[in-house]
Please model this.
Amino acid sequence: MKIMNCPLNGPRNITEFICGGEVREMPDPATSSDGAWVDYLFMENNKAGVIYEWWCHVPTTYWFVARRDTRTEEIIETLTVADFSGAAATGGQS
Amino acid sequence: MPWNLLKYGLSRKRHGPAYFPPQPELKPAYDVVIIGAGGHGLAAAYYLARDWGINNIAVLEKGYLGGGNTARNTTIIRANYLTPEGVAFYKESVELWRELDRELDINLMYSERGHLTLAHSDGAIRTARWRAEVNKHLGVDSQLVFPDDIARICPQLNLSPSVRYPILGALYHPPGAIARHDAVAWGYGREACRQGVEIHQLTEVEDVLTAGGHVTGVKTNRGVIHAGKVLQAVAASSTLLADMAGFRLPIQTVPLQACVTEPLKPILDPIIVSGSLHVYLSQSARGEFVMGGSTDPYALYSTRTSLDFKEGLAAHVLELLPMLAEVPIMREWAGMADMTPDFSPVMGRTPVENYYIDAGWGTWGFKATPVCGKRMAECVASDTQPDLLHPFRLSRIDELDFVGERGAASVGH
Model:
Protein backbone atom coordinates (compact mmCIF):
# COMPACT_ATOMS: atom_id res chain seq x y z
CA MET A 1 0.00 0.00 0.00
CA LYS A 2 1.23 3.47 -0.78
CA ILE A 3 1.20 5.81 2.19
CA MET A 4 0.56 9.54 2.10
CA ASN A 5 1.48 11.63 5.10
CA CYS A 6 -1.53 13.86 5.71
CA PRO A 7 -0.69 17.06 7.61
CA LEU A 8 -3.86 16.61 9.70
CA ASN A 9 -4.26 12.83 10.03
CA GLY A 10 -0.73 11.52 9.72
CA PRO A 11 0.27 8.59 7.50
CA ARG A 12 -2.76 7.05 5.77
CA ASN A 13 -3.36 4.71 2.81
CA ILE A 14 -3.35 6.69 -0.45
CA THR A 15 -6.75 5.21 -1.39
CA GLU A 16 -8.23 7.54 1.28
CA PHE A 17 -7.15 10.56 -0.76
CA ILE A 18 -8.13 12.16 -4.04
CA CYS A 19 -5.84 14.26 -6.17
CA GLY A 20 -7.13 17.73 -7.06
CA GLY A 21 -4.58 18.46 -9.77
CA GLU A 22 -1.55 20.65 -10.01
CA VAL A 23 -1.46 23.86 -7.99
CA ARG A 24 -1.84 26.69 -10.51
CA GLU A 25 -2.58 30.33 -10.03
CA MET A 26 -6.18 31.11 -10.99
CA PRO A 27 -6.55 34.12 -13.24
CA ASP A 28 -9.05 36.71 -12.07
CA PRO A 29 -12.26 35.73 -13.94
CA ALA A 30 -13.38 39.38 -14.03
CA THR A 31 -10.32 40.59 -15.89
CA SER A 32 -8.85 37.47 -17.54
CA SER A 33 -9.02 37.00 -21.31
CA ASP A 34 -11.04 34.03 -22.62
CA GLY A 35 -7.81 32.41 -23.78
CA ALA A 36 -6.19 32.64 -20.35
CA TRP A 37 -9.33 31.25 -18.71
CA VAL A 38 -9.56 28.31 -21.13
CA ASP A 39 -5.89 27.62 -20.52
CA TYR A 40 -6.48 27.58 -16.77
CA LEU A 41 -9.50 25.26 -17.09
CA PHE A 42 -8.37 22.76 -19.71
CA MET A 43 -4.68 22.95 -20.61
CA GLU A 44 -2.24 20.95 -18.53
CA ASN A 45 1.43 21.52 -17.78
CA ASN A 46 1.65 17.70 -17.48
CA LYS A 47 5.21 18.04 -16.28
CA ALA A 48 7.43 14.99 -15.93
CA GLY A 49 9.15 15.96 -12.71
CA VAL A 50 8.48 17.52 -9.31
CA ILE A 51 5.17 19.39 -8.99
CA TYR A 52 2.95 20.82 -6.26
CA GLU A 53 -0.53 19.27 -6.20
CA TRP A 54 -3.80 19.68 -4.34
CA TRP A 55 -4.82 16.59 -2.38
CA CYS A 56 -7.83 15.91 -0.19
CA HIS A 57 -8.18 13.38 2.62
CA VAL A 58 -11.73 12.29 1.79
CA PRO A 59 -13.00 11.01 5.18
CA THR A 60 -12.10 14.33 6.82
CA THR A 61 -12.50 16.53 3.68
CA TYR A 62 -9.14 18.07 4.53
CA TRP A 63 -7.34 19.80 1.64
CA PHE A 64 -3.57 20.23 1.59
CA VAL A 65 -0.65 20.47 -0.83
CA ALA A 66 1.79 17.66 -1.70
CA ARG A 67 5.09 17.92 -3.52
CA ARG A 68 5.35 14.84 -5.72
CA ASP A 69 7.63 13.55 -8.47
CA THR A 70 5.48 12.47 -11.45
CA ARG A 71 8.29 10.25 -12.80
CA THR A 72 8.97 8.17 -9.67
CA GLU A 73 5.67 8.59 -7.74
CA GLU A 74 7.72 9.72 -4.72
CA ILE A 75 5.78 12.00 -2.35
CA ILE A 76 8.53 14.35 -1.26
CA GLU A 77 6.59 16.37 1.32
CA THR A 78 3.08 17.40 2.29
CA LEU A 79 2.22 20.90 3.42
CA THR A 80 -0.74 22.62 5.00
CA VAL A 81 -2.18 25.34 2.80
CA ALA A 82 -0.82 27.94 5.24
CA ASP A 83 2.69 26.49 5.08
CA PHE A 84 2.49 26.20 1.29
CA SER A 85 1.35 29.82 0.92
CA GLY A 86 4.19 30.91 3.21
CA ALA A 87 6.72 28.93 1.17
CA ALA A 88 5.35 30.40 -2.06
CA ALA A 89 5.49 33.94 -0.64
CA THR A 90 9.15 33.53 0.28
CA GLY A 91 9.99 32.10 -3.15
CA GLY A 92 10.07 28.46 -2.05
CA GLN A 93 7.68 27.36 -4.80
CA SER A 94 9.46 25.85 -7.78
CA MET B 1 15.15 -29.12 -28.15
CA PRO B 2 16.66 -26.21 -26.14
CA TRP B 3 20.06 -27.24 -27.53
CA ASN B 4 18.79 -26.92 -31.11
CA LEU B 5 17.20 -23.59 -30.30
CA LEU B 6 20.50 -22.32 -28.88
CA LYS B 7 22.39 -23.51 -31.96
CA TYR B 8 19.83 -21.82 -34.22
CA GLY B 9 20.09 -18.60 -32.23
CA LEU B 10 23.87 -18.54 -32.47
CA SER B 11 24.03 -19.47 -36.17
CA ARG B 12 23.51 -16.89 -38.88
CA LYS B 13 21.12 -19.12 -40.82
CA ARG B 14 17.45 -18.11 -40.75
CA HIS B 15 14.43 -19.98 -42.07
CA GLY B 16 12.67 -16.99 -43.59
CA PRO B 17 13.54 -13.55 -44.90
CA ALA B 18 14.16 -10.85 -42.27
CA TYR B 19 10.98 -9.16 -41.19
CA PHE B 20 12.44 -5.69 -41.38
CA PRO B 21 15.41 -4.43 -43.40
CA PRO B 22 18.55 -3.58 -41.38
CA GLN B 23 18.34 -0.11 -39.85
CA PRO B 24 19.91 2.32 -42.34
CA GLU B 25 22.11 5.31 -41.53
CA LEU B 26 20.15 8.47 -40.75
CA LYS B 27 19.97 10.81 -43.73
CA PRO B 28 20.40 14.56 -43.14
CA ALA B 29 16.90 15.34 -44.43
CA TYR B 30 13.51 13.72 -45.06
CA ASP B 31 10.26 14.92 -46.58
CA VAL B 32 8.38 13.72 -43.49
CA VAL B 33 9.65 12.77 -40.05
CA ILE B 34 7.24 10.79 -37.88
CA ILE B 35 8.07 10.70 -34.17
CA GLY B 36 6.91 7.46 -32.57
CA ALA B 37 7.00 3.98 -34.14
CA GLY B 38 3.83 2.65 -32.56
CA GLY B 39 0.81 1.49 -34.51
CA HIS B 40 -0.37 5.04 -35.21
CA GLY B 41 2.99 6.39 -36.46
CA LEU B 42 3.69 3.34 -38.62
CA ALA B 43 0.17 3.37 -40.06
CA ALA B 44 0.57 7.04 -40.99
CA ALA B 45 3.89 6.20 -42.71
CA TYR B 46 2.26 3.33 -44.60
CA TYR B 47 -0.68 5.40 -45.87
CA LEU B 48 1.59 8.35 -46.77
CA ALA B 49 3.57 5.99 -49.01
CA ARG B 50 0.58 4.07 -50.37
CA ASP B 51 -1.92 6.86 -50.96
CA TRP B 52 0.18 9.98 -51.38
CA GLY B 53 3.42 8.76 -53.01
CA ILE B 54 5.54 10.13 -50.18
CA ASN B 55 8.16 7.58 -49.16
CA ASN B 56 11.12 9.72 -48.12
CA ILE B 57 10.00 9.21 -44.52
CA ALA B 58 11.87 8.48 -41.30
CA VAL B 59 9.93 7.04 -38.37
CA LEU B 60 11.91 7.80 -35.20
CA GLU B 61 11.44 5.71 -32.06
CA LYS B 62 13.23 6.27 -28.76
CA GLY B 63 12.62 2.69 -27.65
CA TYR B 64 11.68 -0.23 -29.86
CA LEU B 65 8.99 -0.66 -32.50
CA GLY B 66 5.49 -1.07 -31.09
CA GLY B 67 6.74 -1.13 -27.49
CA GLY B 68 4.45 1.55 -26.06
CA ASN B 69 0.69 1.49 -25.83
CA THR B 70 0.42 -0.59 -29.02
CA ALA B 71 1.82 -3.45 -26.94
CA ARG B 72 -0.03 -2.56 -23.73
CA ASN B 73 -3.69 -2.15 -24.67
CA THR B 74 -6.40 -4.77 -24.33
CA THR B 75 -7.00 -4.94 -28.13
CA ILE B 76 -10.73 -4.18 -28.16
CA ILE B 77 -12.09 -2.84 -31.46
CA ARG B 78 -15.57 -1.34 -31.69
CA ALA B 79 -17.53 1.58 -33.14
CA ASN B 80 -20.38 1.90 -30.61
CA TYR B 81 -19.59 5.43 -29.43
CA LEU B 82 -21.94 8.12 -28.18
CA THR B 83 -21.32 11.20 -30.32
CA PRO B 84 -22.06 11.19 -34.06
CA GLU B 85 -18.52 12.52 -34.67
CA GLY B 86 -16.98 9.64 -32.75
CA VAL B 87 -19.23 6.98 -34.29
CA ALA B 88 -18.45 8.12 -37.86
CA PHE B 89 -14.73 8.06 -37.13
CA TYR B 90 -14.60 4.63 -35.45
CA LYS B 91 -17.00 3.17 -38.03
CA GLU B 92 -14.46 3.91 -40.76
CA SER B 93 -11.81 2.28 -38.58
CA VAL B 94 -13.81 -0.94 -38.21
CA GLU B 95 -14.30 -1.03 -42.00
CA LEU B 96 -10.51 -0.74 -42.48
CA TRP B 97 -9.83 -3.38 -39.80
CA ARG B 98 -11.95 -5.95 -41.62
CA GLU B 99 -9.70 -5.76 -44.71
CA LEU B 100 -6.44 -5.20 -42.89
CA ASP B 101 -4.85 -8.63 -42.64
CA ARG B 102 -5.30 -9.21 -46.37
CA GLU B 103 -3.92 -5.79 -47.14
CA LEU B 104 -0.87 -6.11 -44.87
CA ASP B 105 -0.41 -9.81 -45.68
CA ILE B 106 -0.19 -10.72 -42.01
CA ASN B 107 -2.47 -12.69 -39.68
CA LEU B 108 -3.91 -10.17 -37.25
CA MET B 109 -6.26 -12.79 -35.78
CA TYR B 110 -9.04 -10.24 -36.17
CA SER B 111 -11.91 -11.90 -34.38
CA GLU B 112 -15.44 -10.48 -34.22
CA ARG B 113 -16.78 -11.62 -30.87
CA GLY B 114 -19.62 -9.23 -30.13
CA HIS B 115 -19.30 -6.61 -27.42
CA LEU B 116 -21.56 -6.22 -24.37
CA THR B 117 -21.51 -2.98 -22.38
CA LEU B 118 -23.36 -3.94 -19.22
CA ALA B 119 -25.75 -1.54 -17.54
CA HIS B 120 -26.32 -1.81 -13.79
CA SER B 121 -28.44 1.32 -13.27
CA ASP B 122 -31.29 3.25 -14.87
CA GLY B 123 -28.78 5.90 -15.91
CA ALA B 124 -26.61 3.35 -17.67
CA ILE B 125 -29.66 1.89 -19.47
CA ARG B 126 -30.51 5.39 -20.67
CA THR B 127 -26.97 5.92 -22.02
CA ALA B 128 -27.03 2.49 -23.68
CA ARG B 129 -30.32 3.32 -25.41
CA TRP B 130 -28.94 6.69 -26.51
CA ARG B 131 -25.79 5.07 -27.92
CA ALA B 132 -27.81 2.35 -29.68
CA GLU B 133 -29.99 4.96 -31.42
CA VAL B 134 -27.02 7.13 -32.50
CA ASN B 135 -25.25 4.00 -33.75
CA LYS B 136 -28.25 2.71 -35.73
CA HIS B 137 -28.77 6.14 -37.28
CA LEU B 138 -25.18 6.06 -38.58
CA GLY B 139 -25.34 2.46 -39.79
CA VAL B 140 -23.48 0.84 -36.88
CA ASP B 141 -24.96 -2.40 -35.55
CA SER B 142 -25.85 -1.81 -31.88
CA GLN B 143 -28.92 -2.56 -29.82
CA LEU B 144 -30.17 -2.42 -26.28
CA VAL B 145 -30.67 -5.92 -24.86
CA PHE B 146 -32.13 -7.18 -21.57
CA PRO B 147 -31.21 -10.09 -19.27
CA ASP B 148 -33.09 -12.77 -21.27
CA ASP B 149 -31.10 -11.82 -24.40
CA ILE B 150 -27.87 -11.49 -22.41
CA ALA B 151 -28.34 -15.01 -21.06
CA ARG B 152 -28.47 -16.25 -24.66
CA ILE B 153 -25.51 -14.14 -25.89
CA CYS B 154 -23.30 -14.83 -22.88
CA PRO B 155 -24.59 -17.62 -20.58
CA GLN B 156 -21.36 -17.44 -18.54
CA LEU B 157 -22.34 -14.12 -16.95
CA ASN B 158 -23.74 -14.06 -13.44
CA LEU B 159 -27.22 -12.63 -14.06
CA SER B 160 -28.41 -13.13 -10.51
CA PRO B 161 -30.39 -10.18 -9.11
CA SER B 162 -28.91 -10.79 -5.63
CA VAL B 163 -25.52 -9.17 -6.20
CA ARG B 164 -24.30 -5.68 -5.38
CA TYR B 165 -24.70 -4.49 -9.00
CA PRO B 166 -27.30 -6.67 -10.81
CA ILE B 167 -27.16 -6.59 -14.62
CA LEU B 168 -30.26 -4.73 -15.84
CA GLY B 169 -29.42 -4.65 -19.52
CA ALA B 170 -26.62 -4.07 -21.98
CA LEU B 171 -25.60 -2.34 -25.18
CA TYR B 172 -24.90 -5.19 -27.60
CA HIS B 173 -22.54 -4.44 -30.49
CA PRO B 174 -22.05 -7.56 -32.66
CA PRO B 175 -19.07 -6.16 -34.69
CA GLY B 176 -16.98 -5.75 -31.50
CA ALA B 177 -13.67 -7.52 -32.09
CA ILE B 178 -10.20 -8.25 -30.76
CA ALA B 179 -6.94 -8.56 -32.69
CA ARG B 180 -3.28 -9.43 -32.17
CA HIS B 181 -1.94 -5.98 -31.29
CA ASP B 182 1.80 -6.49 -31.91
CA ALA B 183 1.12 -7.75 -35.41
CA VAL B 184 -0.58 -4.45 -36.28
CA ALA B 185 2.65 -2.53 -35.70
CA TRP B 186 4.73 -5.22 -37.45
CA GLY B 187 2.38 -5.36 -40.43
CA TYR B 188 2.22 -1.62 -40.97
CA GLY B 189 5.97 -1.30 -40.34
CA ARG B 190 6.92 -4.05 -42.79
CA GLU B 191 4.69 -2.76 -45.57
CA ALA B 192 5.90 0.82 -45.01
CA CYS B 193 9.54 -0.36 -45.24
CA ARG B 194 8.74 -2.20 -48.47
CA GLN B 195 7.68 1.14 -49.91
CA GLY B 196 10.88 2.86 -48.86
CA VAL B 197 10.06 4.19 -45.39
CA GLU B 198 12.92 4.03 -42.85
CA ILE B 199 12.34 3.02 -39.22
CA HIS B 200 14.99 4.25 -36.76
CA GLN B 201 14.78 2.67 -33.34
CA LEU B 202 16.73 3.94 -30.29
CA THR B 203 16.51 7.40 -31.86
CA GLU B 204 15.18 9.91 -29.36
CA VAL B 205 14.01 13.39 -30.32
CA GLU B 206 15.65 15.93 -28.00
CA ASP B 207 14.35 19.10 -29.58
CA VAL B 208 11.97 20.29 -32.28
CA LEU B 209 13.57 22.92 -34.51
CA THR B 210 11.40 25.77 -35.76
CA ALA B 211 11.99 29.00 -37.66
CA GLY B 212 9.42 31.72 -38.30
CA GLY B 213 6.55 29.56 -37.03
CA HIS B 214 7.49 26.62 -39.29
CA VAL B 215 9.05 23.36 -38.24
CA THR B 216 12.43 22.79 -39.93
CA GLY B 217 13.58 19.57 -38.35
CA VAL B 218 14.35 17.69 -35.17
CA LYS B 219 17.45 17.27 -33.04
CA THR B 220 17.96 13.66 -32.04
CA ASN B 221 20.52 11.73 -30.00
CA ARG B 222 21.98 10.73 -33.39
CA GLY B 223 22.21 14.24 -34.83
CA VAL B 224 20.03 16.88 -36.44
CA ILE B 225 17.55 15.86 -39.16
CA HIS B 226 15.90 18.38 -41.44
CA ALA B 227 12.28 17.71 -42.28
CA GLY B 228 9.69 19.24 -44.55
CA LYS B 229 6.93 18.04 -42.24
CA VAL B 230 6.86 16.47 -38.80
CA LEU B 231 4.14 14.33 -37.23
CA GLN B 232 4.23 13.46 -33.53
CA ALA B 233 2.45 10.26 -32.47
CA VAL B 234 3.86 9.59 -29.03
CA ALA B 235 0.90 9.08 -26.64
CA ALA B 236 2.13 9.62 -23.08
CA SER B 237 5.05 11.84 -24.14
CA SER B 238 2.82 14.15 -26.21
CA THR B 239 3.20 17.10 -23.84
CA LEU B 240 6.99 16.75 -23.69
CA LEU B 241 7.20 17.08 -27.49
CA ALA B 242 4.57 19.82 -27.70
CA ASP B 243 6.62 21.77 -25.14
CA MET B 244 9.62 21.49 -27.49
CA ALA B 245 7.52 22.60 -30.45
CA GLY B 246 6.01 25.44 -28.41
CA PHE B 247 2.27 24.84 -27.96
CA ARG B 248 -0.02 23.77 -25.13
CA LEU B 249 -2.06 20.56 -24.87
CA PRO B 250 -5.14 19.61 -22.81
CA ILE B 251 -3.50 16.29 -21.94
CA GLN B 252 -2.57 14.57 -18.73
CA THR B 253 -0.44 11.42 -18.59
CA VAL B 254 -2.02 8.78 -16.37
CA PRO B 255 -1.20 5.07 -16.00
CA LEU B 256 -3.69 2.46 -17.18
CA GLN B 257 -3.16 -1.04 -15.82
CA ALA B 258 -4.12 -4.42 -17.21
CA CYS B 259 -3.42 -8.09 -16.57
CA VAL B 260 -4.02 -11.59 -17.96
CA THR B 261 -4.89 -14.89 -16.34
CA GLU B 262 -3.26 -18.17 -17.19
CA PRO B 263 -4.64 -19.65 -20.44
CA LEU B 264 -7.86 -21.65 -20.34
CA LYS B 265 -9.77 -23.51 -23.04
CA PRO B 266 -12.12 -21.23 -25.03
CA ILE B 267 -15.07 -20.58 -22.73
CA LEU B 268 -15.98 -16.93 -23.29
CA ASP B 269 -16.92 -15.58 -26.71
CA PRO B 270 -18.07 -11.95 -26.31
CA ILE B 271 -16.12 -9.01 -24.95
CA ILE B 272 -17.59 -7.88 -21.63
CA VAL B 273 -17.46 -4.30 -20.37
CA SER B 274 -18.97 -2.83 -17.25
CA GLY B 275 -18.68 0.88 -16.59
CA SER B 276 -20.13 0.69 -13.08
CA LEU B 277 -17.76 -2.12 -12.07
CA HIS B 278 -14.73 -0.60 -13.88
CA VAL B 279 -14.03 -3.81 -15.78
CA TYR B 280 -13.45 -4.90 -19.33
CA LEU B 281 -12.40 -8.37 -20.29
CA SER B 282 -12.17 -10.79 -23.17
CA GLN B 283 -10.61 -14.19 -23.78
CA SER B 284 -7.68 -13.95 -26.17
CA ALA B 285 -6.93 -16.34 -29.02
CA ARG B 286 -4.49 -18.21 -26.80
CA GLY B 287 -7.02 -18.55 -23.98
CA GLU B 288 -5.88 -15.92 -21.53
CA PHE B 289 -8.49 -13.66 -19.97
CA VAL B 290 -7.31 -10.14 -20.78
CA MET B 291 -8.63 -7.73 -18.15
CA GLY B 292 -8.41 -4.00 -17.59
CA GLY B 293 -9.98 -1.35 -15.42
CA SER B 294 -10.11 2.40 -15.12
CA THR B 295 -7.09 4.66 -15.23
CA ASP B 296 -5.11 5.36 -12.07
CA PRO B 297 -6.47 8.23 -9.97
CA TYR B 298 -3.54 10.64 -10.44
CA ALA B 299 -0.98 11.70 -13.06
CA LEU B 300 2.22 9.68 -13.39
CA TYR B 301 4.89 9.05 -16.02
CA SER B 302 5.47 5.44 -15.03
CA THR B 303 4.44 1.94 -16.02
CA ARG B 304 4.40 0.60 -12.48
CA THR B 305 1.47 -1.56 -11.36
CA SER B 306 -0.31 -1.57 -8.00
CA LEU B 307 -1.94 -4.07 -5.67
CA ASP B 308 -4.97 -1.77 -5.27
CA PHE B 309 -5.72 -2.18 -8.97
CA LYS B 310 -5.55 -5.96 -8.93
CA GLU B 311 -7.64 -6.32 -5.78
CA GLY B 312 -10.36 -4.04 -7.10
CA LEU B 313 -10.39 -5.60 -10.55
CA ALA B 314 -10.44 -9.19 -9.25
CA ALA B 315 -13.35 -8.44 -6.90
CA HIS B 316 -15.39 -6.94 -9.70
CA VAL B 317 -14.55 -9.62 -12.27
CA LEU B 318 -15.65 -12.31 -9.80
CA GLU B 319 -19.00 -10.60 -9.40
CA LEU B 320 -19.54 -11.00 -13.18
CA LEU B 321 -17.80 -14.36 -13.71
CA PRO B 322 -17.58 -16.32 -10.43
CA MET B 323 -16.17 -19.30 -12.38
CA LEU B 324 -12.80 -17.50 -12.56
CA ALA B 325 -12.31 -17.64 -8.78
CA GLU B 326 -9.51 -20.21 -8.88
CA VAL B 327 -7.74 -18.88 -11.97
CA PRO B 328 -4.37 -17.25 -11.26
CA ILE B 329 -3.30 -13.93 -12.75
CA MET B 330 -0.21 -14.59 -14.82
CA ARG B 331 1.09 -11.20 -16.01
CA GLU B 332 0.34 -7.57 -15.30
CA TRP B 333 1.55 -4.34 -16.85
CA ALA B 334 0.67 -0.70 -17.33
CA GLY B 335 0.66 1.77 -20.18
CA MET B 336 0.74 5.53 -19.94
CA ALA B 337 -2.49 7.01 -21.27
CA ASP B 338 -2.72 10.56 -22.64
CA MET B 339 -6.08 11.64 -21.25
CA THR B 340 -8.10 14.62 -22.56
CA PRO B 341 -10.92 16.49 -20.78
CA ASP B 342 -13.57 15.37 -23.32
CA PHE B 343 -12.36 11.75 -23.76
CA SER B 344 -11.65 12.42 -27.43
CA PRO B 345 -8.37 12.50 -29.32
CA VAL B 346 -6.43 15.52 -30.56
CA MET B 347 -5.58 15.13 -34.24
CA GLY B 348 -4.42 17.31 -37.07
CA ARG B 349 -2.71 20.64 -37.55
CA THR B 350 -1.04 22.58 -34.74
CA PRO B 351 -0.09 26.23 -34.16
CA VAL B 352 3.31 25.36 -35.71
CA GLU B 353 3.18 25.22 -39.54
CA ASN B 354 3.94 21.81 -41.06
CA TYR B 355 3.87 20.23 -37.62
CA TYR B 356 1.04 17.77 -36.96
CA ILE B 357 -0.19 15.98 -33.89
CA ASP B 358 -1.82 12.64 -33.21
CA ALA B 359 -2.44 12.48 -29.46
CA GLY B 360 -5.01 12.36 -26.70
CA TRP B 361 -5.61 8.67 -27.23
CA GLY B 362 -6.14 7.96 -23.55
CA THR B 363 -7.73 4.55 -23.20
CA TRP B 364 -9.22 4.35 -26.72
CA GLY B 365 -6.30 4.46 -29.20
CA PHE B 366 -5.72 0.93 -30.49
CA LYS B 367 -9.06 0.57 -32.28
CA ALA B 368 -8.40 3.82 -34.17
CA THR B 369 -5.01 2.77 -35.57
CA PRO B 370 -6.06 2.25 -39.23
CA VAL B 371 -8.38 5.23 -39.62
CA CYS B 372 -6.05 7.51 -37.71
CA GLY B 373 -3.07 6.48 -39.86
CA LYS B 374 -5.07 6.96 -43.04
CA ARG B 375 -6.57 10.32 -42.14
CA MET B 376 -3.40 11.71 -40.53
CA ALA B 377 -1.56 10.79 -43.75
CA GLU B 378 -4.17 12.81 -45.65
CA CYS B 379 -3.76 15.69 -43.20
CA VAL B 380 0.06 15.69 -43.46
CA ALA B 381 0.19 15.24 -47.24
CA SER B 382 -2.44 17.87 -48.08
CA ASP B 383 -1.82 20.19 -45.09
CA THR B 384 -5.57 20.40 -44.57
CA GLN B 385 -7.73 19.03 -41.77
CA PRO B 386 -9.84 16.17 -43.22
CA ASP B 387 -13.59 16.53 -42.52
CA LEU B 388 -13.56 13.35 -40.44
CA LEU B 389 -10.87 14.83 -38.16
CA HIS B 390 -12.37 18.31 -37.93
CA PRO B 391 -14.23 17.63 -34.64
CA PHE B 392 -10.95 16.45 -33.06
CA ARG B 393 -8.81 19.50 -33.95
CA LEU B 394 -6.64 20.97 -31.20
CA SER B 395 -8.30 24.39 -31.52
CA ARG B 396 -11.64 22.92 -30.36
CA ILE B 397 -10.45 23.49 -26.79
CA ASP B 398 -10.01 27.24 -27.31
CA GLU B 399 -13.36 27.32 -29.12
CA LEU B 400 -15.02 25.31 -26.29
CA ASP B 401 -16.37 22.97 -28.98
CA PHE B 402 -15.81 19.69 -27.16
CA VAL B 403 -16.67 16.17 -28.34
CA GLY B 404 -18.03 14.71 -25.10
CA GLU B 405 -17.33 10.97 -25.37
CA ARG B 406 -17.37 10.47 -21.61
CA GLY B 407 -20.56 8.41 -21.78
CA ALA B 408 -18.96 6.01 -24.22
CA ALA B 409 -15.60 5.50 -22.54
CA SER B 410 -15.49 1.77 -21.87
CA VAL B 411 -15.10 2.41 -18.21
CA GLY B 412 -16.46 5.38 -16.26
CA HIS B 413 -13.37 7.32 -15.28
Observations:
- The first strand of chain A starts at residue 3 and ends at 6.
- Chain A touches chain B at residues 1-2, 15, 18-19, 35, 38-39, 42-48, 53, 70-73 (CB under 8 Å).
- The helical segments of chain A are 34-42, 81-89.
- The CA atoms of residues 47 and 70 of chain A lie 7 Å apart.
